[in-house]
Amino acid sequence: MTQRPPILKPNESYTFGSYFLMKFAPGDILRELGASLTKGTINFPIASSMELTRLPDLKQRLEEGITRVSLTSEAARREVLIAPILLEVAHITEAIVNIEYSIEIDQYLRGDLDYYLQSKHNVLLVEAKQADLTRGFTQLAAELIALDSWVELQDPILYGAVTTGDIWQFGSFERVSRVVTQHLMLYRVPTDLEMLMQILVGILSQG
Q1: Which pLDDT does position 3 carry in this prediction?
Q2: By C-alpha distance, which of 35, 37, 15, 17 is closest to 27?
Q3: Chain centre distance of CA 63
């Protein structure tokens, strides 16, 4: 049987953004990164609603931003929809927010992470995209795989999300089995804001 030529060429270098541009099946791409892809339900650590005391104010600010700002660019979506949510999450969890955080593992896993949040207990990766969550998730998956070799935390699962600002999708990476799970649910802003916040805060609060 003829061996299939590799998607990732050994004499080339790839950034995380390269995976967003690829038209190959996500599972085939991840296989070459030594991981597998599955779709299912992720059992997130969920924060209590009691911790989200400033949620009504956040929702009001997001709704006002949606009505007053033209969200036709990724930059606008980041500033109006994504940054306020992540800053509120950081306020609650006392996490540090790193923007355009650079990491390099090898020629296949290198580039900038849009948002990389670090709390005392865990880390969270968020990739912002103007559109196309499907290919955005492939990029997120590659970033989670890279993060496995970067972080010193011993947590068995790493979490991330890809978002257009108004739609969020989560993913996880099981570090021992090297399985990336694409969560089936999509969370919409501002409709699902409370559930979204409970997940984001829960991930960074778990001890």
Answers
A1: 80
A2: 37
A3: 23
pLDDT grade for 1, boundaries at 50, 70 and 90: low
For residue 20, give both structure tokens: 């967003």
Whole-model pTM? 0.95
Task: Supply the DSSP string of 126-184, one letter for each residue.
Answer: EEE-SS-HHHHHHHHHHHHHHHHHH-----SEEEEEEE-SSEEEEEEEETTTTEEEEEE
User: What sign has the CA pseudo-torsion 53, 100, 105, 163?
Assistant: positive
The Cβ of residue 81 has, within 10 Å, a number of other Cβ atoms equal to: 23
Q: Are 92 and 52 in contact (CB under 8 A)?
A: yes
Rounded-to-integer distance, Cα 117 and Cα 122, Å: 8
Q: What is the pLDDT of residues 104-113, one digit of tens each?
A: 999 999 999 9
Stretch 169-184: mean pLDDT: 98
**Contact assessment for residue 203 and residue 122, using Cβ atoms and an 8 Å cutoff:** yes
| Cβ atoms < 10 Å from Cβ of 116 | 24
Q: For residue 52, is pLDDT > 70?
A: yes
How many other C-beta atoms can be found within 10 angstroms of the C-beta atom of residue 153? 13
Report phi then psi at 176, rounded to 5.
-75, -50
pLDDT digits (tens, 9 = 90+) for 157-169: 999 999 999 999 9
181-198 pLDDT per residue, tens: 999 999 999 999 999 999
